[in-house]
Amino acid sequence: MKASVVNGFGQGFHVEDVDIADPIGREVLIDVKASGLCHTDHSVATFLDLQPFPAVLGHEVAGVVTAVGPEVVEIAVGDHVAASLIQFCGRCAKCLSGKTHQCLHPEVTQRDASQPPRLSRNGEPMGQFAGLGGFAQQALIHENQLAVIPDEMPWAQAALLGCGVLTGAGAVLNSAAVQAGDTVVVMGAGGVGLSGVNGARIAGASKIIVSDITEGKLKLARRFGATHTINSVSTDPVEEVLRITGGGADHVFDFVGARPVTEQGLRMLGKGGGLYLVGIGGNDAGVEVATMSAVFNQHSVQAVSMGSSNLKRDLPMYAALYLQGRMNLDDLVSKEIALEEINEGYGFLKDGDLARVVITNLS
Question: What element of type H or E holds 223?
Answer without folding.
Answer: helix 215-224
